Amino acid sequence: MRARYGIPLKVTAGLTATAAAGIVYAAGFEARSFRLRRVTIPVLPRGMRDLRVLQVSDIHMVCGQRKKRAWLQKLAGLRPDFVVNTGDNLSDTDAVPEALDALGPLMEYPGVYVFGSNDYYGPRLRNPARYLMEKAQGRHGLNGNKPVVGAVHNPWEELRDAFDEAGWVNLTNTRGRLKLPGGLDLAFTGLDDPHIKRDRYERVAGGPDASADFSMGVVHAPYLRSLDAFTADGYELVLAGHTHGGQLCIPFYGALVTNCDLDTDRVKGLSTHTAAGRTSFLHVSAGCGTNRFTPVRFACPPEATLLTLTARD
Predict the structure, then answer these.
(1) Cβ–Cβ under 8 Å, residues 213 and 48
(2) Residue closest to 217 by CA, chosen among 247, 243, 194
(3) What's the whole-number mean pLDDT along residues 119-146?
(4) DSSP H/E element including 111
(5) What's the chain's Rg over C-alpha atoms?
(6) How many Å separate Cα 180 from the centre of its chain?
(7) Least C-beta-crowded within 10 Å: which of 34, 65, 118, 200?
(8) Degrees (nearest 5) of the Cα angle 294, 289, 155?
(9) Rounded Cα distance, 284 and 290, in Å
């Protein structure tokens, strides 16, 4: 007996078993196989000491994720000079206490943050194939799609208040400063999430603060309009998240989508961006979580990144 279209049942069964094994691996192992990446970026002014920056992104906390919470708590042992949180901390309306518990030890260090769409709104069940369709049609988030109707609102204000109380600097369409031990004065320019059209670069335009020792840009989703604006304004480093590194990647090929208009060659890690005759470093974190409705990763393990900023040659 043969399956439809002349495919032998043994082949069909084998393919089904392989697919099932892949899902078990992607959800049961890789999605919880947390990694720390280390990246060095020669971007500081000459003579300035190295800075250790811990970037965490796309945590997408869901109640009961004990392994993720414990791993995030242990990152404090890296003793960074400061922390940059590039958003999407939540994937559960009830998970604010657990997200804050996970980040609690890191909140003992200086830090800055921006929010992503999943901090503001609860996740929705979507067909993963829609990401490929949207990429083909040039539509991403609210940047081409119809506004979301009936969205679940997350208690993001509780998250904001806790970050602010800990001394982390809110960079929502604004500028901020951090004073580090030793007298270093760092300036930051941040945007709200471009994925849902909350970015307002005109409010922060003007380039790096000349009175600071170093300035950088911070945004959740690395849409090209934001990267162009930061780079054209003279920022030498921009940090972002959002992409999940593609989340479901093909071994030896890479990501199929970025969930924004950034090309897949720069879906995660360190690269450069050029605009208006200037070039900046861009670091995109693959993040350490997933949407609660698609809790899988393949060929793209969850991560945080310890960035070592060094002086330019």
Answers:
(1) yes
(2) 194
(3) 89
(4) strand 111-113
(5) 20
(6) 24
(7) 200
(8) 95
(9) 16
The H or E element spanning position 22 is: helix 9-28
Neighbours of 82 (CB within 10 A): 20
Specify the pTM.
0.92
The residues with which 169 forms a beta bridge, in sequence order, are 112
- CA torsion 136→138→139→140, rounded to 10°? 90
Strands 51-56 and 303-311: antiparallel
Q: For 300-308, what is the mean pLDDT?
A: 98
- Asked if 177 and 170 touch (Cβ cutoff 8 Å), the reply is no
In this structure, how many other beta carbons lie within 10 angstroms of the beta carbon of residue 161? 11
For residues 308 and 6, the model is more confident at 308
Alpha-carbon distance of 283 to 54, in angstroms, equals: 12
Residues 9-25: pLDDT tens digits? Answer: 554 444 344 333 455 56
Question: Which pair of structure tokens corresponds to residue 280?
Answer: 């900046």
What tokens were used for 224?
């090209």
- For tokens 């979301």, name the residue: 148
